[in-house]
Design goal:
alpha+beta; acyltransferase; CAT-like_dom_sf; two-stranded antiparallel sheet; Plant_acyltransferase; 194 residues; single chain
Length: 194
């Protein structure tokens, strides 16, 4: 197996002017060890048997897991010799633009005339981080505490929120809002290997 080698030459940072005007105007290039992590990085490992493995690292600002799977599927299609990938990229950037004026009618829980209570700052050294595993037994214990139907996600979110409220000593009877985002696309691990 032949390994590729390379050398990284360190030099002083220099200011590089863009070929055409950009919003930032210029970008400073810095030392190799202090670079911002790459937006996309892929490594290919070839095995003696002829197989290979691909490792991918991507900045989450560029794509979520579903987007990376879709991208890798396109690369796979092209590597197999197809003229076009099965799923073409979408360049409709206007779909990501906010309505002007904003339409908040779809978020009635967050749209309220009542002011939210002030956020109580908490010192970082007083915060506790921990991992919790919720198996069928733990979910059943949470479910036994509620009277209305709830998803596993709702049960866990409510339990964590109640623990937080108690930990920071929130006053009783004050409505507190909790929000989260979610992925609406379908994701199937097997789709990568179709």
């Amino acid at each position: 197996m032949v390994m590729t080698t390379f050398k990284a030459h360190r030099s002083n940072p220099e200011l590089v002017m863009p070929a055409s005007p950009t919003p930032q105007g210029s970008k400073t290039l810095s030392d190799v060890d202090s670079q911002i992590p790459l937006w996309f990085y892929a490594t290919v490992t070839r095995f003696k048997c002829g197989g290979f493995a691909i490792g991918v690292s991507i900045c989450h600002n560029m794509a979520d897991a579903y987007g990376v799977i879709q991208f890798l599927k396109c690369v796979t299609d092209l590597a197999r010799g197809q003229e076009h990938p099965a799923v073409l990229p979408v360049w409709d950037r206007e779909l990501l633009m906010v309505r002007n004026p904003p339409d908040l009618t779809s978020l009635p829980f967050f749209v309220s005339d009542e002011p939210s209570p002030p956020v109580q700052p908490m010192a970082m050294d007083k915060m506790v981080g921990d991992y919790f595993l919720f198996g069928p037994r733990e979910i059943a214990a949470l479910r036994s505490q509620v009277t209305e139907p709830a998803t596993d996600f709702e049960l866990i979110t409510a339990a964590m929120w109640m623990c937080r409220a108690e930990a920071i000593a929130l006053a009783l009877g004050i409505p507190i809002r909790s929000g989260y985002s979610r992925q609406e696309g379908s994701y199937d691990r097997r789709s990568l290997f179709d």
